[in-house]
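Here is the promised in-class demo. Please do not try to memorize the tokens; focus on the logic of going from shape to residues.
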């Protein structure tokens, strides 16, 4: 069997091998445990650059994976990552066309960086390689590789939602973008909705390509183990002591408008207003590490969340109780797993999400004798697989408030019954099965 060549913008090794807050790196790292693998992407560094600047590829071997990364210039980082990927494609794919800041010159930089990735990857390729490209930063990379003569099997997986064509066409040259996807032998998306939307788009613009569903998962065994083992960690003990036996609600998300954090805070505020019996008797920890902090919409969201948390704590807090504990920095994954285990309720209420691994991690981390309750948005990609959670429309603060009350007063029998229905799928659809199914489809579509 030849090598697997993974290409993504974000590469975990580029972050000094700290945990990455982001589903792509977390799931892929869990999936690539065996076989020889090259993982190519951005180093996470920006450099000054100049006309004709040509980045060097840095190689770093960790176990079975060789990481190959390149730096981007400030201009590339700005146009490719901040503006086109995260200021245009991200909002559009999350059904928020109104937040899109389109500028034709960023599209050119996006294309150029994709061509740069192709040029830098080409000399690293070997006969027998299968290439697997990830996410919206790199839609046209397959075509750029084909233009350089690459004949290897190339697959593409989109980790985020794909909207209906009626929305997608708000992107100038969206048809051209879809056309480049004919370069792929296999195209994978997270949900049936995403596949339907993308395939409608393909047929409207006359592209012969077909998206298929490959739902992503976690490494449940490892996560459950971490959750249990971490209980003896001094920081986890400290958190437990600080709760003084009060029930505990947790939220864990990148600080991103797609995660519905502001609506969630409003839901919690409504809960405290409408169910005063819980005031002072419950704790809520929201971990929301800053993400894409230089994109204007993300900066604005952070200000809004700071204000909302301050308002809620100021209004409902007392000298010995803080309604929201709100952190904007990451927490080590081993601790996070045990935090989930301690939590009686998880609030996972995105306005739109590709899959949402946090929902699956929370289920995997529970103690089966006494599991907590997952409150889940209808608009998470995980929703169709996890309907035994307490499902909510995150736009309705009263629905979140009612769900919180219901979760906190739910009898143990119902908690167990719901968890018993959620758990098998978390173990059945994992990061490993996701990668295996995709790679098998790729090998069948075009043998290397
Ligand atoms: P996204 O890919 O949009 O960030 P997901 O929920 O699919 O959303 O994946 C997020 C991943 O990042 C999860 O594995 C989660 O545990 C991890 N993560 C999120 N927030 C933090 C944090 N504060 N500290 C550490 N890991 C985090
Ligand atoms: O999982 C979706 C995703 O957009 C990944 O592509 C990305 O790596 C992750 O979220 C975190 O975002 P970023 O790489 O911009 O920090």
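The designed amino acids, position by position:
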């Amino acid at each position: 069997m030849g090598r697997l060549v993974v290409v993504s913008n974000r590469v975990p090794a580029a972050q000094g091998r700290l945990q990455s807050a982001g589903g792509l790196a977390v799931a892929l790292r869990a999936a690539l445990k065996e076989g020889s693998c090259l993982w190519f992407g951005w180093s996470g560094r920006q450099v000054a650059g100049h006309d004709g600047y040509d980045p060097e590829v840095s190689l770093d071997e960790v176990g079975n994976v060789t990481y190959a990364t390149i730096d981007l210039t400030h201009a590339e980082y700005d146009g490719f990552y901040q503006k086109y990927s995260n200021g245009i494609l991200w909002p559009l794919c999350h059904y928020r066309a109104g937040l899109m800041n389109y500028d034709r010159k960023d599209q050119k930089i996006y294309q150029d960086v994709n061509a740069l990735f192709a040029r830098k990857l080409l000399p690293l390729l070997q006969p027998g390689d299968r290439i697997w490209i990830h996410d919206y930063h790199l839609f046209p990379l397959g075509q750029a590789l084909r233009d350089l003569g690459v004949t290897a099997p190339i697959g593409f997986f989109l980790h985020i939602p794909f909207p209906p064509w009626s929305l997608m066409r708000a992107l100038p040259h969206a048809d051209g973008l879809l056309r480049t996807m004919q370069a792929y032998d296999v195209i994978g998306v997270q949900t049936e909705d995403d596949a339907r939307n993308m395939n409608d788009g393909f047929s409207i613009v006359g592209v012969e390509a077909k998206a298929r569903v490959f739902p992503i998962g976690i490494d449940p065994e490892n996560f459950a183990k971490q959750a249990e083992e971490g209980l003896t960690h001094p920081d986890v003990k400290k958190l437990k002591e600080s709760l003084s036996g009060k029930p505990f609600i947790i939220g864990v998300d990148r600080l991103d408008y797609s995660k519905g954090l502001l609506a969630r805070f409003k839901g919690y505020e409504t809960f405290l207003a409408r169910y005063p019996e819980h005031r002072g008797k419950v704790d809520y920890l929201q971990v929301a590490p800053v993400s894409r902090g230089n994109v204007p919409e993300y900066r604005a969201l952070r200000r809004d969340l700071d204000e909302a948390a301050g308002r809620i704590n100021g209004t409902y807090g007392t000298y010995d109780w803080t309604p929201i504990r709100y952190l904007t920095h990451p927490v080590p994954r081993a601790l996070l797993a045990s935090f989930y285990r301690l939590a009686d309720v998880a609030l996972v209420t995105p306005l739109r999400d590709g899959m949402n691994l946090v929902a699956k991690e929370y289920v995997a981390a529970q103690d089966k004798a006494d599991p907590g309750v997952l409150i889940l948005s209808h608009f998470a990609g995980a929703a169709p697989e996890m309907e035994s959670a307490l499902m909510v429309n995150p736009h309705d603060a009263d629905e979140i408030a009612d769900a919180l009350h219901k979760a906190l007063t739910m009898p143990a029998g119902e908690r167990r019954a719901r968890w018993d229905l959620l758990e098998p799928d978390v173990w059945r659809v994992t990061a490993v099965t996701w990668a295996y199914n995709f790679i098998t489809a790729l090998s069948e579509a075009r043998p290397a």
